[in-house]
Design brief:
The chain has 151 residues and is α+β, with helices and mostly antiparallel strands. It has a single domain, classed as HIT-like (HIT family, subunit A, 2-Layer Sandwich). The protein has 3 helices and 7 strands. The longest helix has 22 residues.
Length: 151
Amino acid sequence: MPDSTSINETIRRFGYPESLVVDYAHWTVLLRPQQATLGALVLAAFGPATALGDLPPAAHAELARITADIEATLGKAFSYKKINYLMLMMVDPNVHFHVLPRYDGPKIFDGTSFEDKGWPRLPDLAAAPDLSAERFRKLRDHLRGLWPARR
């Protein structure tokens, strides 16, 4: 579990700890509050770094395991067609990626329809259905339940 000094403002702005799917040593995986595509995540580095190159070597090494876990989980959960990792960092300064599974048709989860409005081009980050707090928790918990066992 990360200590309070490693939880940066970017992580807080994406709803940590309510949005937490899983923590790793150097990163946290959060359910993105605005589900531009079903299962959209935020992969955020712990600590104060504002440039990818400023992360310690261990954080870079850990990315291989995390991206494999993300892709396995989202593939099992929703059978995405492609996956995009966007490192925008325009508003939220700490190192993070928006992880967007991409779909060529609508997906349904718990009675809510999700459309990838940008498919097959750039994702439309502003297009997201309104999710109640309960549906958000169900989606987060669904992903948590499918997450690979930690070694």
